[in-house]
Amino acid sequence: MKRVVTYEIVGGWMLLVSFLNFPENYEMWNDIGVGFILTFLGVGFIKEDSTKGWITTILGIWLIIAAYVPYMLVEPGSSWNALIISLILIYLGFHLYNFSNKNVDLKKKKSSLKGERF
Fold it and tell me: How many domains does the chain have?
């Protein structure tokens, strides 16, 4: 659940940044910071769900690289980059939330079935 909240917070932050006009220097350091957060989050998540872990890791590495691409530091490149990444992160967060709820429901059903005898 903590991972889901982290995805939603980081995705919401990137969505907010995409609509605010910050100076180029701030956007560069923001991309680097969020990129490192996503990279570490993704690497830690690879063991649990490799697909989402790798997607998150690649997004983090992309943000770090994009901080040094000149076109990505000026409008409209920085806004589109932040917007697309935020939408992907928010989607992953919602998908993880639904996935974790299904696992909890399945565990409850299995534990209730263990007590019953046929």
Answer: 1
- Residues 22-72: tens digit of each pLDDT: 777 788 888 888 889 888 888 888 887 778 888 888 888 888 888 887 776
* 107 falls within a domain: no
Q: How many Å apart are CA 61 and CA 63, to the nearest integer?
A: 5
Q: Tell whether 40 is covered by a domain.
A: yes
Q: Quick check: helix, strand or coil at residue 80?
A: helix
d(CA 117, CA 43): 43
Alpha-carbon distance of 65 to 61, in angstroms, equals: 6
Q: Each residue of 86-103: b (16+ CB within 10 Å) or e?
A: bebbbebbeebbeeeeee
- Domain boundaries, position 23: 2-101
Query: What gap in Å lies between CA 38 and CA 45, rounded to an integer?
Result: 10
